Amino acid sequence: MRDASRRKASLGARVPPSRWATSAPAGSRGRRILFVTSEIADYVKIGGLGDVSAALPRALRKQHHVRVLIPGYRELLVSLGNVPVVGRLDGLSSLPACNLGRIETRDGLTLYVLLCPELYDREGSPYVDVNGADWADNDIRFARLGLAAADIACGLGDPTWAPDLIHLNDWPSGLAPAYLAWRGRPTPSIMTIHNLAYQGVFGRDRLGALGIPDAAFQMHGVEFCGDLSFLKAGIFYASHVTTVSSTYAEEITTPEFGCGLDGLLRTRAREGRLTGILNGIDESWDPRTDPHLASPFDANDWKGKSVNAEEVRNAFGLAVSRGPLFAVVSRLVHQKGLDLTIQATQTIVRQGGQIVVTGRGEGRLEAELQNLAARYPGQVGVKIGFDEGIARRMFAGSDFLLMPSRFEPCGLSQMYAQRFGSLPVAHRTGGLADTIEDGITGFLFKDLSLAGFLNAVYRSIDAFGSRRQLKAMRRSAMARSFEWQQSASDYAAVYDCVVRSVGVR
User: Fold this and answer.
1) Which of 191, 321, 428, 469 lies at a 20 to 30 A Cα distance from 73?
2) What is the model's pTM?
3) What positions does the domain Glycosyl transferase family occupy (predicted)?
């Protein structure tokens, strides 16, 4: 399996289902939606997809009948306990037959669980083993997920329910619309790209094992640079493609950000079949009520923010300081521009600033960050790994969040930071450009270079020196609304358009 086909780092924690308030869909007027995902934050989360998969279906339930399909990983089954079986799904080529389970969360969200122990009941993450290596059979594991989505769309597995539309997410579910197309079934489908860099690329020799017709291995099909791409299949065969911010939807139609798929994506854009819809964040991101914080606070009382800053400094072994506190809460991967942060550290420290970092990712970056902490004891603190409580206190206690990402399809950290009065210092790209108001709720830079980044850092330090400006920007940032309901309404509009255009049901 190629490196681009997996999510390389773990950054997340389980989120209680009760976090999102849901309500019953509006009678029989709502459409039946099958939301297909490889992770959901309630039980198993690797990145932002897990958060989206937990929050968006719940927000959509106010308008539609939504059910979620997810593989039956060991971690999920331990949390759920016994999952009643509602049907049996046949195999295809090397894809094994399996059972389909159905269960409801405490707040009433229906989950379909793909019960296939030989594929999913393992130690490790959804994508890699305990040593961090891709599962050797990832093509089989996620082709089985795509086939199950197609089966359910055809009325198989659960005889009591079939969707009007299937909503697919990233490469692990990318073959679902392809299997439907090869069966001649017209069920509408939405393919959401959360990160185009991860494409699920496998060798041509896997076509037979996955039940893919030889005729589909072409430019107008699943072929990508001589290999098979799950994500390209999803983009090509889906009725409509969405991605997670308006700016990223434009960026991926260019060679710079298109990862080799820009031509196909430009075609979808010209056809009116590519839409950018910004992700949201859930209502728990409220500094007045968050139980993880050392002290609550709001935009009119900053004492609690100071208490959280002190807590963070203690936790990371930093010296007492009156200077600005910069935070990094991120997957530690090249995409996130950690090399620029490392290069900027000397300047930040010399200006009286301190930096705290948490996350997990590429071993080289983890080692470089730990070396940085050793080089600047008391001024730089690094914790490899992720703890939600620590991360939330970092957002609450920091003055600024560093996000010099090379690209950022949506990004959630900059939204969390603003809600907690931490001003992002970020590259003007993707969702960062769509969610940060330069000079009002944060600091953006266009030139992706150390000089460009440092220019934004200097601007943030200048703002810190002006208590009036800092307070005004914090209040503006904390007033920003990133509610999921707006995203859900935008998706509902796309659903309606796609179902009408396909002309079924």
Assistant:
1) 191
2) 0.89
3) 322-447
The token pair at 237 is 């065969």
Fill in the DSSP letter of residue 128: B
Kindly state the DSSP code that residue 301 receives in the 8-state scheme: B
pLDDT of residue 20: 34
Domains and CATH numbers, the chain: 25-66+122-157+164-280+485-502 (3.40.50.2000), 303-481 (3.40.50.2000)
Helices 450-465 and 467-478: angle between axes, nearest 10 degrees: 110
Q: Would you say 44 and 126 are in contact if contact means Cβ atoms under 8 Å apart? A: yes
| SS3 readout for 258-280 | CCCCHHHHHHHHHCCCEEECCCC
Asked if residue 45 belongs to a known ligand binding site, the reply is yes
- Which residues on adjacent β-strands are paired with residue 190? 167, 240
Burial code of 75-103, b = ≥16 C-beta within 10 A, e = fewer? bbbeebeebeebbebeebeebeebbbbbe
Q: What contacts 481, CB < 8 A, 6 or more positions away?
A: none
What is the spatial distance between Cα 399 and Cα 325, in angstroms, rounded to a whole number? 5
Handedness of CA 442, 446, 449, 455 (dihedral sign): negative
Closest CA to 276 of 243, 251, 253: 243
Q: Answer left, alpha or beta for residue 333, where phi above 0 means left and psi between -120 and 50 means alpha.
A: beta
Report the DSSP beta bridge partners of residue 444.
426
pLDDT of residue 13: 30
> Residue 398 has which token pair?
């920091």
CA-wise closest residue to 23 among 485, 495, 483? 485
The number of angstroms, rounded, from the C-alpha of 379 to the middle of its chain's C-alpha atoms is: 31
State the DSSP code for 352.
T
Amino acid of residue 448: L
Question: In angstroms, how far is CA 280 from the centroid of its own chain?
Answer: 11
Inter-CA distances, 371 with 325, 374, 381, Å: 19, 5, 10
326 compared with 500, residue with greater pLDDT: 326
